[in-house]
Amino acid sequence: MRPLSVLGLAILGFAGLIGESAAQVYPARPVTLIVPWPSGGPSDAPARVVAERMRVSLGQPIVVENVTGGSGSAGTARAARAAPDGYTLVHGNFSTHVINGAVFKLPYDVQKDFAPISLLGQQSFAIVGRKNLPVENLVGLITWLKANPDKASQATGGPGGMPHLMGLHFQKLTGTRFNFVPYRGTAVGINDLVAGHIDFMIDATNNVLPHVQAGTIRAYAVTAKTRLPSAPDIPTVDEAGLPGFHFSSWQALFAPKDTPEPVIAKLQAAVADTLTDAEVRRRLADLGQDIFPREAQTPAALATLQQADIAKWWPLINEANIKAE
Fold this sequence. Notes:
It is built from 12 helices and 10 strands. The protein starts with a helix and ends in a 6-residue tail after the last helix.
């Protein structure tokens, strides 16, 4: 029996060495990054900036593959089914890994079927109104909405989107009532806001700030905890009279569940290295992305933020009975 025991130990030891060796040489070939949104869109561009620079850290290219459909669920589903070997990743965000879990019947679990790698950047939103709205600030807007229940209009990109959810949350916090006007994308809604056909919006800062700076719409507050370098004159919601109305749309990298921890660690280190690059930081800033601090660029931090957002937003989605059309 003893020779067999020795042989067994030797086999186990050899297998362990193979496993360590495999982790050490990863990646030995190009990595695919699934972006579940169209090429050139607001989520695609930051993903490509990060993927391009991670090549330097990993020694292998990261090939971006756009897999669209189902509000990001088609590409996310493909990533969930991929082999957990570190060669297929997905660029996820607040929509794909929080909202979709509540509004769609998905063939995967947004939490259990993915291994978090790292947060990348986040984008705050702004509360803006038509230029001739008869209010000067956020408190004035809330007062005006209360005085005109069910008469005002907020543009959204459709039911279940971030502007819609924020509008519902705004109503709940302020005790106001107004109508939601869905558009095929908030860019169309902004055009109607500029034209004065819509009263106000809550949308991503990179979408609305050019119009604010041009003087065609009015900004009341940003949903960040601190003022934005790109818009230092716009107060935060805390300063403007709606404390705690914080929101940012985050972007992150995930791998399929059961991806080996050494592989996750190598990918996380590559992200951290990438996000220290001055050119990467500049390009992401130009896209309206605020980079997460180094201590938040960990799998645990990503998992914690995702869980907190699910706990906050799923009850609101369920209460409003928002389902995918």
